[in-house]
Amino acid sequence: MKRLAVLTSGGDAPGMNAAIRAVVRAGISRGFQTFGVRHGYTGLMAGDLVPLGSRDVGGIMERGGTILGTTRCQELKTGQGQQAALRQLRERGIEHLVVIGGGGSQAGAAALSGNGQSVVGLTSTIDNDIAGFDVTIGATTAVDVALESVDRLRVTAASHGRVFLVEVMGRDGGFIALNVGIASGAEFIVVPEVETSPVQVAAEIRATWARGKSHAIVVVAEGAKYNVDALASCLGRSDTPLGFDLRLCRLGHVQRGGAPGMTDRLLATRLGAAAVMHLAEGRTGVLVGIRAGCIVAEPLAESVGRKKPLEPDLLDLARTLSL
Amino acid sequence: MKRLAVLTSGGDAPGMNAAIRAVVRAGISRGFQTFGVRHGYTGLMAGDLVPLGSRDVGGIMERGGTILGTTRCQELKTGQGQQAALRQLRERGIEHLVVIGGGGSQAGAAALSGNGQSVVGLTSTIDNDIAGFDVTIGATTAVDVALESVDRLRVTAASHGRVFLVEVMGRDGGFIALNVGIASGAEFIVVPEVETSPVQVAAEIRATWARGKSHAIVVVAEGAKYNVDALASCLGRSDTPLGFDLRLCRLGHVQRGGAPGMTDRLLATRLGAAAVMHLAEGRTGVLVGIRAGCIVAEPLAESVGRKKPLEPDLLDLARTLSL
Amino acid sequence: MKRLAVLTSGGDAPGMNAAIRAVVRAGISRGFQTFGVRHGYTGLMAGDLVPLGSRDVGGIMERGGTILGTTRCQELKTGQGQQAALRQLRERGIEHLVVIGGGGSQAGAAALSGNGQSVVGLTSTIDNDIAGFDVTIGATTAVDVALESVDRLRVTAASHGRVFLVEVMGRDGGFIALNVGIASGAEFIVVPEVETSPVQVAAEIRATWARGKSHAIVVVAEGAKYNVDALASCLGRSDTPLGFDLRLCRLGHVQRGGAPGMTDRLLATRLGAAAVMHLAEGRTGVLVGIRAGCIVAEPLAESVGRKKPLEPDLLDLARTLSL
Amino acid sequence: MKRLAVLTSGGDAPGMNAAIRAVVRAGISRGFQTFGVRHGYTGLMAGDLVPLGSRDVGGIMERGGTILGTTRCQELKTGQGQQAALRQLRERGIEHLVVIGGGGSQAGAAALSGNGQSVVGLTSTIDNDIAGFDVTIGATTAVDVALESVDRLRVTAASHGRVFLVEVMGRDGGFIALNVGIASGAEFIVVPEVETSPVQVAAEIRATWARGKSHAIVVVAEGAKYNVDALASCLGRSDTPLGFDLRLCRLGHVQRGGAPGMTDRLLATRLGAAAVMHLAEGRTGVLVGIRAGCIVAEPLAESVGRKKPLEPDLLDLARTLSL
Predict the structure, then answer these.
(1) Which residues of chain B lie closer than 8 angstroms to A153, CB-CB?
(2) Which ranges in chain B are annotated with CATH 3.40.50.450?
(3) Which of 3.40.1190.20, 3.10.50.40, 3.40.50.460, 3.30.70.260 would CATH assign to domain C141-256?
(4) To which CATH superfamily is domain A140-256 assigned?
(5) Are D155 and A64 a contacting pair at CB < 8 A?
(6) pLDDT confidence band for B303 (50 / 70 / 90)
(7) Can you give the residue ranges of the Phosphofructokinase domain (chains A, B, C, D) (predicted)?
């Protein structure tokens, strides 16, 4: 029986468990015995693998996080680390590897592939920043969870006549901020991709006040040049009043841990099954994801290091509709 | 100032309010004064219109249903009904109409367009059954709400060792059933598109029992040839035991009324803004929706009466993974 | 080391897992080794017991249902059944038993106690119908889950101008209906404790229409003399129009399977710990619950067969406020 | 017709809208015309009052925050402020006042009562810190919302093998921290009422690690002597490793803005109706709340400045069960 290992790597994302389940069960239907690697590449290098049968992945699809555990592993970037990983697979007679994770994790997968390992990557990160793909496993749920929190902040903001600066995740990109911002009807959105000064933010808040709104929400990506602390500090020093009382809120890791919604469960399930199909049919060294609504696979080597740009017309749209 | 009317029609869908908001506010930015038609085409024929300003559509995006009200209107199918509708618009100097709704409602929009009315349709129905479009406003939230209920049924099914027959909406199509089924890991899915006998359902339940599972979920679209009542009645008469105790649950209209999630708010916002853009640029008689991830407009006349087929490979996938 | 068995019985209720966890862990701190009985009294009679350590009950508190499984067991009502149960405990050297369940299950516990078994009951049923106690484990979450559904029905009811007859659980009592009804602002509430004719229901709906409301919600306990089917059928035959279109919805078992909220987790935790304390201190044959905000224990024999009456002033209150 | 004014004051709490609705509608049934005061005592002093009829309070019960707005008003503590407030009521012929809020707001109500104003207070604060009452309007929902977030943090903590320091609201008391901590199975709870050193916290985390747990949660009240920042800074400087990676999360104002659950809607409804009953029957200068499960009224003057102590046995219980 052919052997296959699956691991999750990098930041956890809602839907990873659904992907693991799909890999294991689609694997069974195509004659693979699957092993789960615990704690990402770190566990792979250390040989921390357990066999996974159909029952082991029952009742996990609806749960956030990853039952396999995950790490951000630096050592796999070294040739030594890669050799350790390959050795562990070889020693167990495991021919194939499925890597569920974001850009950094897929760079690792590309490196292993470059060393001759049969590997397929599954696009999964809440940041949705992998170029060439519509959306990654976990991103939809993360935005939905953040949105639920911003809806709640709006309630208390309206009761007190306040403006909230809300920090959402996104160290390098504004995907979460942009989508949460539009879907919550935020009065202003600050993303790393567009330089935004505290003066602009203050002007928008004052304009909202002047327009007669009872409160305001400004959604700020954590990786913006001026983050919520910097903005609050600048706005606090301003001589011209904002109109509203100012508060800030950092949503933090709560955004990661939600139970996956339908979109992420379905995407993860389809990608997991597709990964096994590619392995079964001998297509390896590819990254599997969704593009223009279709499941596609592109060479891992091509996707490494390419960040997905933000859709600029959505920022304009947000602005137009925050009247 | 140019005048524009907007109405919601047919079954209510989560996200309709976000679409109304987008139409009103994008309208303002392009120099339109918008009127809201109450109670769909029925209200249009009766002249039940109210002006909608920016503040009137504040705080509505996060709420399910439609603030304008909606009906399933038979009278608009007649020439007389159409003339009444057109007369009301003419009398008020309203040049353009935006119709938010599903297939039946867009047939009405096509009829008005055929009478020379400038009209743009927005694809919105929880059934996601309009050919040519990826997904319609409301469908994602409806599936998410149904999924949440099925997750809860699974909990009690597992505690008692039961099989649940769960009816979800879908009189003519299996979209909701299929997606809820895959995302909930249902042991079997029954859709109108595929004839399924009670004998097959019983066989699947017995196979699940034989596989050692502690419980089972069968998701059934309301429009399936054998609905949950018929299935339960047949299974109850069977001589061979199922293994599990049998219960049934009809999720019902709860599926309609959820607060829209990010996906529906964002889609509705983009479609609403696109509809106004098309009107402003003189492209009318079109239906606006999302296809392959892009916002597109296609002639209303072409979309009338075309049902979207179910993705057959998803049914196979569901089967493979319910091991 | 003293030995203790714990079982869940009757309908599953959110919070049962928190009670199991508390019994196991409070047990450890007082020197008990705990065994979990699978599938309620049925499993007890069959000797289906597993040892439960601290790690076995980690990560279960936030999940609905019961990890031990549950049944409605008729056989325990017989002397033979009781002897079988006692024998299984004796054979394993298990001195004490904790029974988590509602009225019927506690009658079983009283019977075992009458046979000389050391037993403590924990009040847990979504029906909250055990006389002498404020609220039972599971009732708060069940009402919250039903309430969420009724909130959603109200949204679609308002969009279409409809009246919904909503059936909630409660075969013998109106606790869930009453509380869901008040908390959802239902226009009328039908409970088994108060005979209500279809004529009255119709009159209330017409009065609501006359008052200018856009829609109406009637919450009906499943055990009411006229259930939703009977009511719908009578109302449908009425010559005088209701004003609103009529729809019905049966919330069903979804009400059972919610993830327990804070109130049920806390109550279950406190009751589980109290049960162990009573056993450790030699007080057995008691039923543990909350009364006037305090954890109390009363003789099992006294609580058997006593149904808790509905608070009548709450029905009046519901009426007053549905203006 | 007798006139009655109602205001919300201090921090907003889920359920305040249900209380407003109950006051208005119970008022109608007892012959009162109700006026809503906007923005708390600030609005009262400025004469910002609007008449509220039955339809004005429809559809608000399920929404968080307060439709009337609220402020933390310092000026009412002065005699001048109180006279301004009384004058506004007198000028409008409004005899009675209902104040919905926490301890500080009820001190204001007591002051007005001392000036001869007919006033009834309703206990509402998420902090549940008013001595003599079981629980206040808003506290249950706030804990439930915080709990949901901690459940999510646990998911990501478990995936990465981390310890999270989670800050919950509670500047002066540990009610939220204690209840969230027990209900989430937190490994340690830090409250203002019990001095806790960083060394103790570190020891507990290390003990959790030693016990073989995969992650840990420490819930910290914002008013604890060492808050999450101080703790994180101390723990970060420690030479002995914690075992787990450390992260912190401040839940912030999200805790305030949830949609009220059944418990808060029901409590608010009962208290609102009781307040009107007391006014109608001439009992004023009282604070209405729930004690030992019953609705009670106690003299406002007696409740001023008395903080409710934390239940110390619950802290012990939390400790026992975090094995």
Answers:
(1) none
(2) 2-138+260-303
(3) 3.40.50.460
(4) Phosphofructokinase domain (3.40.50.460)
(5) yes
(6) confident
(7) 3-278
Query: What's the pLDDT tens digit per position in C266-282?
Result: 999 999 999 999 999 99
Counted across chains A and D, CB pairs separated by less than 8 A come out at 103
Contact between chains at C160 and B251 (C-beta distance less than 8 A): no
What is residue D322's predicted lDDT score, i.e. its pLDDT? 86
* Partners of residue B62 in chain A, C-beta under 8 Å: 151, 154, 184-185
Q: Where does CATH 3.40.50.460 sit in chain D? A: 141-255
In B, which residues are within 8 Å of C160 by CB distance? 12, 69-71
Active-site positions of C read 127
CATH architecture of D141-255: 3-Layer(aba) Sandwich (3.40)
CATH of A2-138+260-303, one of 3.40.50.2020, 3.90.78.10, 3.40.50.450, 3.40.50.300: 3.40.50.450
Query: Could you report the per-residue pLDDT of D92-143, keeping only the tens digit for each?
Result: 999 999 999 999 999 999 999 999 999 999 999 999 999 999 999 999 999 9
Strand partners, D218: D165, D188
Contact A317 B270 (CB under 8 A): yes
Q: CB–CB of D261 and C292 under 8 A?
A: no
The CATH 3.40.50.460 portion of chain A extends over: 140-256
Neighbours of chain A (3+ CB pairs under 8 A): B, D
Considering only the beta carbons, identify the residue of A29, A143, A266 that sits closest to B320. A29
Per-residue confidence at A304, pLDDT binned at 50, 70, 90? confident
pLDDT band at residue A278 under the 50/70/90 scheme: very high
